[in-house]
Prior knowledge:
The chain is of the alpha+beta class. It folds into two domains: 108 residues, no CATH class; 88 residues, no CATH class. It is built from six helices and twelve strands. The protein has a five-stranded mixed β-sheet. Strands 7, 8, 9, 10 and 12 form a five-stranded antiparallel β-sheet that branches. Helix 3 runs antiparallel to helix 5. The site of zinc ion (ZN) has 6 residues, from loops.
Amino acid sequence: MQGLQNKANIVGAIPCGCLSTREYKKKMSVSFFTYCIDCSVNAPEIGDAGMMGAPSLEIVSDRFYSFGWIYDGLKAISLLPYSIESYKSFLETHQGHKIFLGNDHMDDEQLPELNYENLEHFELETHGFTEGTYEMVSIETGALFRTSYNWESYKNFEEKELSKAEINRFQQRINQDCFESIYRGPPSLDPYEDLGRLIDFVKENAKHTLKVRLAACRRG
Length: 220
Ligand SMILES: [Zn+2]
């Protein structure tokens, strides 16, 4: 962990080791936030004040997985909800700066000295995203995976077949081990709901030709 902190210039308490994600869920509700200390900017929220690994774009699997690791796996299958793409854009903008990941159970003295009243909030423009569902289908059998809610927004992409390399990269990156680094993210990335179902779906259909697409929700 120390190595990752030094390399990525991450400061603050990364909540590894003490409580697992399931234990967090059972025992208490924790809200996470990320700041760039150098620029006094607040990162976009991930899901419902959740967390997707250590705030670094490096592709690192340690006791605590990096955001970059998880993002790389999701990108392989074009599953990129708005808040994930937004957080990635924040990390790109503030690469090399002091990034702080904290939570609302920390004491004041653990928090960085910042002018909290005047923190800027990083926001990514919402164009280039589609509100609806993300779908994966087996061309051979028609078996379909679809995310549970039609109000999530995903980064646009054209319907396409996944290559074997992309399927492998998703399977290699997004596994049980990194679940501990995912907490209360967007609904489509809940390890115990949509993401867990998706992992099983890919496993069962990995030998098939898999197509991914976005289905825009139709209102009214
Ligand atoms: Zn910065």
